[in-house]
Amino acid sequence: MVNSHFIVAVLLVSFTCTTSIHSIWIGNVGFQNRTWAQAISLAKDFVSKLTLEEKCNMTGGVAGGCVGNVLPIPRLNFNGMCYQDSPSGVGDRVAHSTAFSAGIHIAATWDRNLGYQRAAAIGREFRGKGVHFALGPMMNMDRNARHGRDWEGFGADPYLSGENAFAYVQGVQDQGVVATAKHYICNEQETNRNPGFLARENRVNPNARIAYSANLDDKTMHEIYLWPFASSVAAGLGSIMCSYNQVNGTPACQNDKTLNGLLKGELQFPGNVMSDWGATKSGVESALGGLDIDMPRGGDFLGSAILPAVKNGSVSESRITDMIIRNMAPFYLLGQDEGFPQLDLDRDASGNNYIVNREVAAAGMILLKNTNNALPINPSTDNMVYVYGGAAGQSDEGYRSGASQQHIGALYQGGGSGFVDPAYGIDPLSSLMHKSRDNHVQIRYVTNQNDFGAINSSFHDRGFTGAKCLVFISAFSSEGADRHDLYSLDGGENLVQIVAANCPKTIVIVNSVAQLNLEPWIDHPNVVGVLWSGMPGQEYGPALADILFGDYNPGGKLVFTLAKKDTDFGTDISTTMVSEYTEGVFLDYRHFEQKDITPRYYFGFGLSYTTFTFSQLDISKSNNENKQSASAQYRQTRTRSYSNFGSSGLYDPVYEIKFTLTNTGKVNGSEVPQLYLGFPAEAQQPRKVLRGFDRVYLGPGQSKQVSLVLTQKDISYWNVVKQQWIVAPGDYTVWISTSANNADVKLQSSFHE
Ligand code: BGC
Q1: Active-site hit among 142, 150, 174, 276
Q2: Nearest to 240 by CA among 139, 308, 347, 321
Q3: Percent of the chain whose pLDDT exceeds 90
Q4: Who lines ligand 1 at CB under 6 A?
Q5: What are the C-alpha distances in Å from 307 to residues 60, 194, 567?
Q6: Which tens digits make up the pLDDT trace of 428-467?
Q7: Among 291, 292, 233, which residue's Cα sits nearest to residue 43?
Q8: What sign for the dihedral angle of Cα 456, 458, 461, 463?
Q9: Is residue 10 over pLDDT 70?
Q10: Is residue 276 annotated as a catalytic residue, yes or no?
């Protein structure tokens, strides 16, 4: 039940939390604080007690209670390990789980603090149920708007995705649960991802088992697709999942270049590589190519099947030993050898996680259109509200939204292995009922959006004139299939048009997995408001109602561009067995700018119920003296015993960008200043790329000095000849903006290297 005291409490949290953002990065509590060196030494000790047969057996998963299980060795008091989905809560259909808002939704908050808090809550549930490895974060790029899994990831920009991955890894691992970054790498579509998966005979038949190949160049790999994975490794990531697809013609789970070269070599990743479920295509090539464990079963290629190859010398025993060390090191790193909870996947470990879940649900919603302040609903003038659309209420099928493209009802998450069966899900209509009672607003609804008789007759209701009409539309997608198009379910576009033709104050709520084509109705003069409600998790209703009634000021921002034409994206699902990443680094807003295409809504865009001004931009370069303190400051909240920043200095701060942000409106609210960087020509970059942001919450009239830090890597480009991150000499432009639209730039300056 919603009561005003609770809302005040939530608002206080939301509007004060960023002032204490750093204090919330608390570090691990309640378990061993080990370094990687200590963990690896314990893992070496463990493996030294295993026979060759046992070692081989441990390179494949075994049957057990979780979606993935590691062989127990009772002789050594080792009870095995549990791997379990998903990135946004404990999944695979277990009981008593919180369905958190999805990856795409937390990214839309642009709030690292909330990202950390959400991940910590997710980690607590995994740990509470006794799960050792959480199969998240999912961080494939939103390269293709129709990709069925975009909702699980963090959007279309590598920097944004990397910052989210960083917060996620530390939030989960601070609870003593290993995070698993997936799917490594370039798994940006479902079509042809694993054609031979279903039948075992296909799985071992080399002609039937080959997936599509993502083909890309080295610069694009480093600057776009590897970037977020590099951030997750720097955070201290324990595990990585290689993907179904091929990369440049070699399967991702036996790809020497991407696994041994980039991941374990260049990024110095000390943890284990697990295969996606059924993604292993070979034994010897995979073991030599960098795979450490075949999931979910080793029988075909690894596990006991690899023993003959070790005996005949095709794979060295030291490589098998290395695989076990890597599989065990994350377990020791996070102290799972001491006092880890017994496995019980149905145990309720949700605590008060609904609070952060509700907060994130609200923070990730994006106000796209608000003509003449149509929102928020003002109960003294808007005392009649009409609700239309199946997406406003509950589905007839319960919460099983993982089920179908035809799903009608509020969507809490998308489908597939990423879907978490919610312990409960509160739909918008239910929450609007509560708000209506509290605010003396009358509410009417038609949730059967094909009942045109009921819809049309509602327009003749007593009191309809002057009412605000909320139209709910949704778009679903799932793992295993890409979307057919970028339109909503069950004729949602038609519904908006019918309502807008009759209701001068039509407000559309878009409950969508990822990009949607808004063109059929967005310019209708009666569509005075559009709120993107995203994939908000099981606290959808309360979060949305707070925004619609002005109890929470929306501040989310788009994490992808919304195009006018689907072809404007310039990238799409490949239906052949090859996906050529010929756009290179020109993805999403970088591409729209390069080709001079005006989108409907820009990457980074989102409105608020208040207004902001920006002033006093100052750029300072870290010198040796303040570098120490800036460096310490930048890292202190993020350094963990398990952090892995590497020795290259790439994550050292080199510039500090400060400016003042002021809330000039009448209500509490937040803004997301975004730092876009322009490089000298040598770097061969898009005109501008995102390299900083913060979500800043301010009361009316309040000002704050915002500080954004550029690291060495942030100002570098990948030099393919030198095979290094290089700072190009010349002028760099710094734009502080509120979206990727040049018209939204608020402050501009430059520095010289
Ligand atoms: C998915 C992974 C998931 C695994 C285990 C695969 O189909 O691609 O993301 O973790 O199944 O359920």
Answers
A1: 276
A2: 139
A3: 88
A4: 67, 85, 135, 182, 276-277, 417, 479
A5: 12, 26, 51
A6: 999 999 999 999 999 999 999 999 999 999 999 998 999 9
A7: 292
A8: negative
A9: no
A10: yes
